[in-house]
């Protein structure tokens, strides 16, 4: 507690500082030519289990073989016997006013897990192979990163090509350590400068609630700010990206790219968006019914009116931001939109004369057939057209027409052409009012449900499907039914009005173990026929030990007899609490709420008989515990393999705790195996 390392010169060592505890400081020190980490503050050093309120300030670090400066919050380490030792997540670490130069085998500043960290006014330059400044989580055994503030830092000539990945200079999200796992949440990065990056300046992988605000990027080697750059996937996530400036882009590079359809970014007031907000090209919305030329996408620029992963077109003579445009040889001439690719999109402002259903004729060209090429959506992101496939036309300028149907309200609105699979060109879209009487069109969200493992003959929690009528007439519902081990209730009634929605609540009650499948089927007079939702779940066998290999925790432990032994499947290893102090407890986290009706406790088979007085508690949130089995005395007898079985009415809980108040064989709580069964 409150240790200080001040003014120390370290050179030619395995690592510099490897430190844990509370309130400690590494300051005013100089480290050069270090084989591994320069300064690594953590929660494990010298058998510690916490790292809180630590400070790393005003240090100079040059030439390290791993991270120059790192906050390393470890969740657990695996011991030689296979058991695990768990540690407290790190909190409130400050890294400020440091200089990190030329780490040849790691990051300049690395944030791995914990919460409340402050990374301010550091200078990072010339990383040889890796990210310059990264905020994420380390490995499968690291803690999630739940909050950090990164502000006022300067990152120069950083990023690198380790593993041929083209790593960004600054990175936020999981995967920065090569493991795409864990949670990275609530990172705020503001007022930082990233200049002359080797590849992308700032990259995002999977992360949530990030704020990237008022940062400056100059002369990036590839692109400016990229969501899901190569080798850093972001299938989900969210960020607010505002007030940032990107300058000095190379030809063909982009200031901002979002390569992920599942990562939601709110992008505003950035330099590449300019002073002009999104609007119809030429100032007037395209009329519907009518033809919308592909080259007449909205104004507003990258990330606002369109999103492309690279700039390839030759259409700047037509419009200054003529990305991915080329002259077309189709009848009528003009330009077509090419270089299509998954995740790209273009927005078009249209003015619909009359609400109704429209047939959209898309003029397209594709050398080979493209399945699921595109879809049209409205400003809310609702898929209006369904997936549109394109047949093989034989060439990039060999044109054909495919059709889709959309239902639109009257008035001015924005439609988006979403590129789901590349390999085709688009010349124009023609909207014609569909003939015939009004009709209903039903859609469902989500289109499938997957249930977690559920004990056989028990019922899961409810999952909900929303049914929407996007047509122009009411849908008459004749039946809603499920098949397999699934059941439903609904609010739909016998009719769903045009534009209205209802919900279907589905539960899962497996009748056997293993994978179970079924369908939710909605029969109606909708123009798109029968609507189905695929259902799946896993029935947990009555012989399943739900606790096997699961995380554990404890009130205390003696010597090396840690709680992870109780779920390692080895009866010879055991947890033992601090001696001569009661009560004591050991706990298992099942990872999710499970139906449980039996617990089996064991001690090593070779031990002599003893009686422990204990109770069984359970919780869904690890905060409020209820008593599942009241306190009683249980005898562990070697003639019955030192095994005790406790049964009780089935209860659905995530955390199970054995609370021990007495032991006739030793003055401590002792358990070697804590098995939790669903029957």
From TrEMBL:
Some GO term, biological process aspect, for this entry: which one? carbohydrate metabolic process
Output the Gene3D superfamilies linked to this UniProt entry.
Galactose-binding domain-like, Immunoglobulins, Single-stranded right-handed beta-helix, Pectin lyase-like
Checking PROSITE patterns in the record gives:
CBM6, FA58C_3
Output the SMART domains linked to this UniProt entry: CBD_IV (SM00606), FA58C (SM00231), PbH1 (SM00710)
Q: Which residues form the CBM6 domain?
A: 290-432
Q: Name one GO molecular function term.
A: carbohydrate binding
Keyword Signal in record: yes
Q: Which UniProt keywords apply?
A: Signal
- Domain named F5/8 type C: residues: 528-679
Provide the protein name.
Answer: Choice-of-anchor D domain-containing protein
* Biological source species: Actinacidiphila oryziradicis
């Amino acid at each position: 507690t409150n240790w200080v390392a001040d003014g120390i010169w370290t050179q030619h060592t395995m690592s510099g500082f490897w430190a844990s505890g509370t309130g400690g400081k590494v300051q005013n020190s100089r480290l050069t030519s270090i084989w591994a980490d320069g300064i690594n503050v953590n929660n494990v050093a010298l058998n510690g289990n916490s790292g809180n309120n630590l400070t790393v300030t005003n240090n100079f670090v040059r030439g390290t073989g791993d991270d120059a400066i790192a906050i390393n919050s470890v969740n657990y380490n695996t011991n030689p016997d296979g058991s695990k030792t768990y540690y407290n997540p790190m909190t409130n670490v400050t890294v400020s006013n440091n200089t990190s130069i030329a780490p040849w085998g790691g990051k300049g500043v690395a944030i791995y897990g914990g919460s409340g960290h402050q990374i301010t006014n550091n200078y990072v330059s010339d990383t040889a192979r890796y990210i310059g400044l990264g905020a994420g989580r380390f490995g499968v055994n690291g803690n999630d990163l739940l909050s950090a503030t990164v502000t006022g830092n300067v990152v120069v000539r950083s990023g690198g090509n380790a593993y041929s990945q083209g790593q960004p200079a600054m990175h936020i999200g999981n995967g920065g350590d090569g493991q795409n796992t864990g949670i990275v949440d609530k990172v705020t990065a503001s007022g930082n400068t990233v200049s002359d990056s080797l590849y992308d300046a700032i990259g995002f992988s999977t992360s949530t609630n990030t704020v990237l605000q008022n940062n400056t990027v100059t002369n990036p080697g590839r692109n400016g700010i990229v969501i899901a750059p190569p080798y850093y996937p972001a299938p989900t996530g969210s960020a607010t990206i505002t007030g940032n400036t990107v300058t000095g882009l190379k030809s063909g590079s982009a200031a901002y790219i979002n390569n992920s359809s599942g990562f939601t970014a709110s992008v505003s007031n950035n330099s590449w968006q300019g002073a002009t907000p999104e609007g119809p090209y030429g100032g007037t919305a395209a009329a519907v019914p009518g033809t919308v030329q592909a080259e007449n996408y909205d104004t507003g620029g990258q990330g606002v009116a369109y999103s492309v992963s690279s700039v390839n077109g030759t259409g700047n003579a037509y419009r200054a931001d003529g990305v991915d445009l080329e002259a077309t040889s189709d009848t009528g001439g003009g330009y077509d939109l090419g270089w299509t690719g998954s995740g790209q999109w273009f927005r078009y402002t249209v003015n619909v004369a009359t609400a109704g259903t429209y047939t959209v004729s898309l003029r397209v060209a594709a050398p080979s057939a493209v399945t699921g090429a595109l879809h049209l959506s409205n400003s809310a992101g609702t898929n209006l057209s369904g997936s549109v496939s394109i047949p093989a036309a034989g060439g990039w300028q060999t044109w054909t027409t495919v059709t889709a149907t959309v239902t639109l309200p009257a008035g001015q609105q924005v439609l988006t052409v979403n590129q789901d699979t590349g390999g085709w060109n688009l010349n124009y879209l023609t909207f014609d009012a569909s003939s015939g009487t009004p009709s209903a069109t039903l859609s469902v969200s989500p289109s499938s449900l997957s249930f977690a493992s559920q004990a056989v003959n028990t019922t899961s929690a409810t999952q909900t499907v929303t049914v929407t009528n996007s047509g122009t007439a009411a849908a008459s519902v004749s039946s809603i039914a499920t098949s397999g081990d699934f059941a439903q209730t609904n609010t739909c009634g016998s009719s769903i009005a045009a534009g209205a929605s209802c919900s279907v609540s589905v539960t899962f009650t497996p009748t056997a173990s293993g994978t179970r499948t079924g369908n939710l089927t909605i029969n109606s007079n909708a123009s798109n026929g029968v609507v189905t939702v695929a259902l799946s779940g896993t029935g947990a066998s009555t012989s399943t030990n739900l606790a096997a290999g699961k995380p554990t925790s404890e009130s205390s432990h003696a010597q090396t007899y840690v709680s992870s032994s109780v779920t390692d499947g080895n009866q010879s290893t055991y947890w033992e609490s601090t001696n001569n102090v009661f009560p004591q407890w050991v706990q298992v986290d099942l990872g999710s709420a499970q139906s449980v009706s039996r617990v089996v406790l064991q001690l090593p088979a070779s031990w002599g008989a003893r009686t422990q007085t204990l109770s069984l508690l359970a919780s869904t949130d690890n905060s409020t515990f209820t008593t599942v089995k009241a306190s009683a005395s249980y005898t562990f007898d070697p003639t019955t393999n030192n095994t005790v079985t406790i049964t009780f009415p089935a209860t659905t809980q995530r955390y199970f705790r054995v609370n021990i108040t007495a032991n006739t064989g030793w003055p401590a709580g002792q358990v070697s195996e804590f098995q939790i069964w669903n029957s």
